[in-house]
Amino acid sequence: MTGSALRVTLADAIVWAVETLRDASETPRLDAEVLLAHTLGWSRARVLSRLEEPFTDESLHQFRTLILRRAAREPVAYLVGRKEFYGLEFVVDRRVLVPRPETETLVDAALEWAKHRPAPLVIADIGTGSGCIAVALAVHLPQAHIYAIDLSRDALAVARQNVIRHHVDASVTLLNGDLLAPLPQPVDLLVSNPPYTVLNEVDPGVRMHEPHLALDGGSDGLAVYRRLFAAAPSALRPGGALMLEIGATQARAVVDLARQAFPEAVIRVRQDLAGRDRVVICFSD
C-alpha cells in the first residue's frame, strides 16, 4: 500500500490488507477489519459505516505494521492485546496461550457440575495461563475459592492482570509451581487445559508465536496427562471431579489413563459445539 495517505480510504486499506493476508489467515477480511478498528480506536461497526474516509499518515503506518505482523502469522489477539472468552475480555500477549472457544466446553462442564454441589467449593485450575478458566469460574461461582497454578511466572503476571480486571482477586489465589505440587489442600474440582499437542504437528503460526510450554505435550501429546493422573487422586476430596480438555483424537487414550488412576470412577467424554471430543470428566467416588 503506497502513495499519500490522504488518497487512501479505509476501504482501500481493507482491500490491500485482505490481499496481503490471503495466504496467512483463514479469515483475512475479519482480521483486517478487527486490526483496522484497533488502529483507529473504533468499533468494527463504525469502521464499516465510514469506509470512504481517508487515513492519516500515522494511522496508515500503524495499520500497515499490524497487517504485516499478521501476515507473519502472529495471532490477532496478540496484536490487539485482548481476547474474549466466555463472554469476558482477557488481556493476552506472547506470555500466554490465546484462549480458544473450544475451551469454553470445559467451563460449561465445570459450572454444570458445580450447580449440584454444596457451596463453598474449592477448585484448582492447573496450567492457568491467562487465567481465563479460573476467572470465568470465579465470576460465575462467587462463593468458590479457586487456586490458579502455572509453572510460568510470566503467565501468572498476565493472569494477575485478568484477575484484577474482573474483580475476582478475593476468590482466586495464583500459585507458581509444577502441576499440583503447589496445592495447599485437597480440592473438590480439578480442571485443566494441559499441553496436548505434538509440537512439530502444530500449525506453524501457533508454533512460531505461542508459548511452547503451553503447547508441548511430548512425543505422543499425553505426557502431561500421565503426570496429572498420577497426582490427581490424592489431590481430590471424596466425591470430587477431574475435568481435562483434550485434543479431538485423544479421548480413548486419555480415558484409558483416567481408568488406571480412578478405577472406580464414572468417566465421561464431552463434545464441543463442533461435535468433537473435547473434555474427559472423572467423577471420583
Written description of the protein model:
The chain has helices spanning 10-21, 28-40, 44-49, 57-71, 76-80, 104-114, 132-140, 153-165, 204-209, 223-235, 251-261, and strands spanning 82-85, 88-91, 122-126, 145-150, 172-176, 187-192, 236-245, 266-271, 277-283. By secondary structure, it is of the alpha/beta class. The protein folds into 2 domains: 5-72, Ubiquitin-associated (UBA) domain (Helicase, Ruva Protein, domain 3, Orthogonal Bundle); 95-283, Rossmann fold (3-Layer(aba) Sandwich). Strands 5-4-3-6-7-9-8 form a 7-stranded mixed sheet, sandwiched between helices. Strands 1-2 form a two-stranded antiparallel ribbon. α2 (28-40) runs antiparallel to α4 (57-71) and α10 runs parallel beside α11 (251-261).
Could you write a compact summary of the structure shown?
The protein has about 280 residues and is an alpha/beta fold. It has helices spanning about 10-20, 30-40, 45-50, 55-70, 75-80, 105-115, 130-140, 155-165, 205-210, 225-235, 250-260, and strands spanning about 80-85, 90, 120-125, 145-150, 170-175, 185-190, 235-245, 265-270, 275-285. The protein is built from 11 helices and 9 strands.
List the helices and strands and how they pair.
Blueprint: H1 10-21, H2 28-40, H3 44-49, H4 57-71, H5 76-80, E1 82-85, E2 88-91, H6 104-114, E3 122-126, H7 132-140, E4 145-150, H8 153-165, E5 172-176, E6 187-192, H9 204-209, H10 223-235, E7 236-245, H11 251-261, E8 266-271, E9 277-283
Parallel strand pairs: 3-4, 3-6, 4-5, 6-7
Antiparallel strand pairs: 1-2, 7-9, 8-9
